Amino acid sequence: MPQPTHDPLPGDYTTARTGFLRAAERAGARLGSHPLPMRSSRGGELAVDTARLGPEQPSRLVVVSSGTHGVEGSAGSALQRALLRSWPDFERHRPADLGLLLVHAVNPWGFDAGRRVNERNVDLNRNFLAHPTEHEAQPDYESLHPHLNPEALDDEQDRRAREALRAFAAAHGMARLQEVLSVGQHRRPKGLQFGGTEPEPGNRIVREIASRETAGARCIVWIDVHTGLGPWGVPELITELDPTDPVYHRGRRWYGDAFRSTRAGESVSAPLSGVIESGLAEAVDPEAELTPFTAEFGTVPADRVFWALRADNWLHHHGDPESERGVAIRRELLEVFRPSDPAWGRAVLASGLGIVRAAFEGLARDAASPGS
Ligand SMILES: [Zn+2]
Fold this sequence. Notes:
Layout: H1 13-26, E1 30-39, E2 45-53, E3 60-65, H2 73-85, H3 87-93, E4 98-104, H4 108-113, H5 139-148, H6 155-172, H7 174-182, H8 201-213, E5 219-232, E6 235-239, H9 246-255, E7 259-261, H10 276-283, E8 289-298, H11 302-318, H12 324-337, H13 342-368
Parallel strand pairs: 3-4, 3-5, 5-8, 6-7
Antiparallel strand pairs: 1-2, 2-4, 6-8
Helix pairs in contact: 1-2, 2-13, 5-6, 6-7, 8-10, 9-13, 11-12
Bound molecules: zinc ion (ZN).
């Protein structure tokens, strides 16, 4: 039978938001909204929206957030819509004290603009730390900086960058190179993986949502949906916590070896600093049992993702985003984080629903056998 070619993922922020709000209303969800003080590219509102389903005061709560990295927002948004649609089915099988909270477009500006970062070039998922005391010096990043963030983007610069990266990997290993390119830095506002120098507005909104919307819940699972790392369409559930942490044990019990710790060197991701997980741990009731993790869905090889990010960063600081070349660079960035192949979207949706369902089942099982 021929596969349907319909792409299940929304094409842009405005379509995603409209679809999310409509599905939330249809599902009878309780809505909340945190608007940003600027307009979208189409002149509409940019907002972080929330939808709650289930009891008013659940003792167990599953949270699914999307679009922390704006350009990655479509997959998480589509998953949230699918959850809203399939809520009656979830509801039939869930314990009465279990609720669902959806946080749509944590970085709405980036989602709308097709960028991973926010309106101030900050990677929100590197911004959740104590500023500036937890800013670590990154001498290796500094040494590679001219190659990662060239002022001109041409074949000669690309060749030199490739050489420098190859030499670094030969001297320090590929794992260290990946870490340097992704851990986050706080010195170069126009650089890659800039984590900012103070809590960004999006950071404050997430903390506010986390502290207000999870109040009263004893067990909280928070799944932040990302794309762009790992094999095509394959999910990995990632924690920054150590394998000795109870979160890791819980994750392994629910997901087997798809649940991985960056600290154990078993993840597609290098260890990162300032991720959303860290902020959640501070914002929710310290007495609650919090299980925060990233659901990362793979797309294209990491090498292609890196060159797309480098070109995008150059474009917005030194190029013309509206030029023909600019359009091509932006199209490539979208493609590496949100592949246009509808089969990718379908695979992500199917496994995404399974991941959320497993969190519900895990919470229900753990409550049934106290002390686990
Ligand atoms: Zn991401």
